Amino acid sequence: MAAAGALFDQVLNGLTIGMVYVLLAAGLSIVFGVMDVINFAHGEFFALGAYFALSVAIATGPGGFWVALLVAPLLVAVVGAGVERFTVRPLYGRNPLYHILLTFGLVLVIKDVVELVWGPQPYQFAKPPVLRGTVEILGYGYSVYSYFVVGVGLLIAVGTWLALTRTKYGLIIRAGSMDRGMVRNLGIDVDRYYTLVFAFGALLAAVGGVVIAGRQSVSPGMGDSVIIPAFIIVVLGGLGSFRGAVVGGLAVGVVQTLVRSYVPVLEGLVVFLLMIVVLLVRPQGLFGNPEWAGADEGGDLLTVSGGGVFDSTLRRRAGAALVAAFAVVPLLVGLPSYYVNTLAVSIFVWALFALSLDLVMGYAGLVSLGHVLFYGVGAYATVLVVVNLVPSLWVALAVAIAVCTAVAWVVGHLSIRVSGVYFSMITLAFAELFHSAVYKFGWTGGSDGIFGGFDPTYGLVGGPAVRSIELVGDVELFYYVALAAAVGGYLLARRLIRAPFGSVLQAIRESEDRTAFVGYDVTAYKRRAFVVSGGLAGLAGGLSATLTGGVAPEFLAWILSGEVIVMTILGGMGTLYGPMLGAGVYLVVKDVLLSLTNAGSPLLVALGEFWQGALGLLFVAFVIFVPEGLVSLPETVASRIDRRSGGGETIAEDAEVSD
Amino acid sequence: MSDDDPPSDAARPADRASADVDPLLRLENLRAGYGETRVLDGVDMTVPRGEIVALVGRNGVGKTTTLRSIMGEVRPTDGRVTYAGEDVTTLGPVETVRRGIGFVPEERRVFPGLTVEENLTVGSYGGGDAANRRSIEDVFDAFENLDRRRDSRGTDLSGGEQQMLAVGRALVAGADLLLLDEPTEGLAPLIVERVADIVREANADGVTVLLVEQNVAAALDLADRVYVLDGGRIVYEGTPEELRADESVMDRYLGVGV
Amino acid sequence: MSTDDERTTDASTTNSTATDSTTDASTADSTTDASTTNSTTDVPTADSGTPDGRPDLGGDPVLRTEGLTRRFGELVAVDDVDLAVDRGEFRSVIGPNGAGKTTLFNLISGALSPSEGRVVLDGEDVTALSPHERVRRGIGRSFQITNVFGGLSVEENVRIAARSTVETDLSAWERYLRSTDAFDEVNERAAATLERVGLADRAEERAGALSYGDRRRLELGLVLATDPQVVLLDEPTAGMSREVTQSTIDLIDEVLADRTLLLIEHDIDLVMRVSDRITVLDRGSELVTGTPDAVAADPEVRKAYLGGVADE
């Protein structure tokens, strides 16, 4: 009896969390179904719901909770409508990847706005007295609030379902999610509904945020913590399927809770395992229908093809000059140690990481959202080797590369079978799986990671410690190790791209079918690219751990995957030097913004504190206006100027062509 | 065989018919394409009110592109589309439908996850010409097959049923002119007959029809007037009888003159 | 000397050597033929098209399908088709829309797997092989929609295709690190292919910037560069006017003269001159196979094409 009661308690807890997931996943799924938009900012709408509720409740005093429950979601819906209208809308017709990138930028912005307005500290949200306390059933006390959450969730889920199936808008939206073009062909302006759908999705997420606020604290990270499970649920249930979102949400909530109490080892892992298994067995998800994918209106990835800026000789000279400058300047000019040994080294490390991502994303067309997996595994492998095996940096880095290529081989084997968005999601799931796993084990240091006892040497088994050798003017020898790794990585990648291997990769990016029908095993080539890329990312991770002097679970956080994608796009994917440049620009801008916090002017300090949001805004602007990245900027500017001076001519030319 | 002279312009019965009809739809020198590829290279044709007009031709000569240009799914690079006296060349699909042009695209594009009734209901929200809008019950009366399968999903229908549904959906949305793209494709002969009946019935009810067909036999059976498209231009216009008699055209442009 | 005479020589060369060394034959052919390629549009004359230029059809089938069937749900798209295409033959597969032509091609090339039946190339059952493995064994295919690697140079397009024939022989060093410029043999073959399809002077251009007609040529070049025994051509003339269509078919006939060809067409009349034999498909089944004259005279064919009209 007691066991049954405890079980029921757990199930109720699971359903409570599950209902919140349903609210999140339903909006995410509908938005994807109708507009093909993968909205990473959905978690931030959830957080905004909670924060708005907080302010509304405080402003309205007693009974504020109920006002907040109504008003906050509507406010978030308005924010959602604005986001759709001004940022998402310009990108329709492009590859769904650009929406991922855009909304990732929005995550940074909204998160920082929240921190700016409400501060970094967590809040407790007072529940109304009616919802406090417990009800007793069969001698067991259950939280009233849990029933309340389940009830609200149920009400909204049923309401949404009725709206989707019984109302004119719902029917049109469902038809639109199956075949947008055909809806237009019936004289229905389906594009007008996009804002509505997006706002409605935001509203559902916000309701989730409000009700969760009564259960746990309200803090700036709350969006981050739910967005990944929400994605998993959407993919599990089938992208675009409302039913899938409901069943998936409840199932994940319950499974998560039960596993936490009965199989704690698997806590945090089971959901990712579940998703990986489902995707491998049934790639379209539980309730997804592959035939409903609809007419593909997605465009190509915008890579910089051909030469890009300047001619190749000039570019080679500029590159050589840059490397020479990096090599010599620190020795001649007495720069502060921080700039040389920390900032410059992290630029090299991230340049290498971005380069590795570019190999799969810019060349093979595989959008990996979980590339941090290799970076993190490389970091852990390096640290573990130095701490447990031999203190040699060289051995450790070699092991890191080896382990990462092996992991990449396995992950590649499993995930390259699914394509497009599903590939992105399954790589994300693998990364999160490893991220959760390192918390579990003693030998990975759990949530603290491994710091101390980490002192790699340059020798094979002993010798001077890496960070201890200083050359002229405080420049550590490690600076040159990192520089050599970045330059070496670039030269290797360039070799690969110019060899038959790279040539085939580019062919795959252009047309998979055609590549198969001139006689290449497309899957094998993608896997090889993934393995090479994994190795390079592992090297970057190893160097990064050496720079940091240890490793922690943050090395595997998904936000780093986002950052490296930002760098790659910022620079210009599909060129090897673009992403490396992007890494440099990103880190320098970030550093400048951060340094503003020490500035005299309060405005600059505020901007410095808002560094993430500022970077996010910059990135959003790039995705919308300069999707081919920095390296395309000179050309774009040139053509703009060209057009302005000779606009009339171009039009005349067009007219002639159509004759 | 193919070495016969191409039909000279004098032999074309073109303007004879066009002069005394009331043109519902008129295409003038229509040019369109995709990216760098030009598909339509100056199409001129007229669809008189109340008639069934067929547009035939080899695979890929631009038949579907012609319909998509009329609908505004493809933006013509040159030329004009006039519907009921109004220039509709630059209108998008939504606006085109609102003027009273209904579209039944290739492969029908029935909403797969919606039931038959829901498919028609979406049609009834369509923005077609209200004056000529059929009710859902009208459609069920006309197609008893659909009536029986009201609650079946789009995916579960046979090809013929899907075709009926697609036509019904366009009629419910309100159409004075129906554009049909390959309505008989992939259908068994018996069903082809049934689809032909549907088109005739709609026509008898006052709907003008422009259909694109590769199945020349079916098209000739149905149509009052036939246009032959080749290389993005109209190369022949006439009645079905005239075309059947003109072996050189059948040969040269339709590849059926064995 | 007319093109036809040359073709006779080429074809017979291939016929005698095809089984052991197609590579050599094709290299030799490409150089021989190079001189004639640039004048493709005006080559055909009214009486040059008899299939005599091709080898005798001595019942040496290089490609066979046995009971090939493919169902999509209730629809039987390809229904128990037995084809036997002889070495060096120019076979056309025609039929009305929806007759199952493209599905048949997808089954032969490996893009689809059959519900029943087998595909046999040169005596080997290739039914279970993936598309790229079939290409390696000599089944090449062109695409209905011109499908070239638009972002790469014309030369690199053809080199990629040419390299696939030696890919398995490459050492890791060659495959991953050696510059694509250094594969002399492959690159010579690619250059010869470009010469043959008349794109030699466009080698440096970006493939995506080519005109529609030139992209067609490059598409053929991609097929040719993989050195196929059998080439599947899926409506290469789709979207072309009657005149351009004829010259394209002639280009194919010329460029791929020494290969076994399987061409999908919608239009009987077009393929009459160039085909050795024609197979007519109707609703997934093989209606008739025979010489152009025999097919043209067949009442069944007339009926399939004209439906009710033929009853008159």
TrEMBL record, chain A:
InterPro entries assigned: ABC_transp_permease, BCAA_transport_permease, LivM-like
Record flagged with keyword Membrane: yes
Localization per record: Cell membrane
GO biological process, one term: amino acid transport
CDD domains, sorted: TM_PBP1_LivH_like (cd06582), TM_PBP1_LivM_like (cd06581)
Residue intervals passing through the bilayer: 12-34, 41-59, 65-83, 95-114, 144-164, 193-214, 226-255, 262-281, 318-340, 347-373, 393-414, 421-439, 477-493, 529-552, 564-589, 601-626
Gene Ontology CC terms, in alphabetical order: plasma membrane
Principal subcellular localization: membrane
Protein topology in the membrane: Multi-pass membrane protein
Keyword annotations from UniProtKB, A to Z: Amino-acid transport, Cell membrane, Membrane, Transmembrane, Transmembrane helix, Transport
Family: Belongs to the binding-protein-dependent transport system permease family. LivHM subfamily.
The name this protein goes by in its record: ABC transporter permease
Species this protein is from: Halobium salinum
From TrEMBL, chain B:
A GO MF term: ATP binding
InterPro entries xrefs: AAA+_ATPase, ABC_transporter-like_ATP-bd, ABC_transporter-like_CS, BCAA_Transport_ATP-bd_LivF, P-loop_NTPase
Keywords: Amino-acid transport, ATP-binding, Nucleotide-binding, Transport
GO-annotated biological processes: amino acid transport
Domain of life, source organism: Archaea
Annotated stretches, region: Disordered: 1-20
Domain called ABC transporter: residue spans: 25-256
SUPFAM superfamilies cross-referenced by the UniProt entry: P-loop containing nucleoside triphosphate hydrolases
Family: Belongs to the ABC transporter superfamily.
Stated name of the protein: ABC transporter ATP-binding protein
Automatic annotation (TrEMBL), chain C:
Signal peptide: none
ABC transporter domain boundaries: 63-308
BP term (GO), one: amino acid transport
Composition bias type Low complexity, residue spans: 10-42
Matches recorded under PROSITE patterns: ABC_TRANSPORTER_1, ABC_TRANSPORTER_2
GO molecular function: ATP binding
Keywords: Amino-acid transport, ATP-binding, Nucleotide-binding, Transport
Domain of life according to the entry: Archaea
SMART domains assigned to the protein according to its UniProt record, in alphabetical order: AAA
Region (Disordered): 1-65
Function as written in the Swiss-Prot or TrEMBL entry: Probable component of a branched-chain amino-acid transport system.
Family recorded in the similarity comment: Belongs to the ABC transporter superfamily.
Protein known as: Probable branched-chain amino acid transport ATP-binding protein LivG
